[in-house]
Amino acid sequence: MTGDSAATAAAAARRSALEKTLCSFNCPITHCTLIDPVIAADGFTYERHAIERWLRSSDRSPSTNLPLPHRGVVPNLGLRSAISEWRQLRGY
Q: Domain with 65 in it: what CATH number?
């Protein structure tokens, strides 16, 4: 493999890894890329507006259907930073 083709292959592998990562950046409720990710009592991360709407009518996890011990959510700052970096790399 020449230097150019090795660099092209490496770039393609990075793009592929970024595309695969995208799935973990999606909200389980909306199936859209997270913008304001929060962690609910079930340990799953959701888009804030989606889980807050869910919790207005349910006390169960949207991911497991198990009862939630509380309805509080906390920001997932690490994931928010990772998504922001991913968006910058993708040119969004």
A: 3.30.40.10
Residue keyed to tokens 């959510």: 73
Angstrom CA distances, 30 to 45, 49, 87, stand at 12, 10, 18
Question: Taking the model in full, what pTM does it have?
Answer: 0.76
Phi, psi of 33 (to 5 degrees): -60, 135
86 with 25: CB under 8 angstroms? yes
Spatial contact of 71 and 41, defined as CB atoms under 8 Å apart: yes
Which residues form the domain of 33? 3-90
Structure tokens at 68: 């939630």
Q: How far apart are CA 44 and CA 27, in angstroms?
A: 9
Give the model confidence (pLDDT) of 20-65 as tens digits: 667 889 999 999 999 999 999 999 999 999 999 999 999 999 999 9
Would you state the structure tokens that stand for residue 47, as one six-digit string?
């888009």
Quote the number of domains for the chain: 1
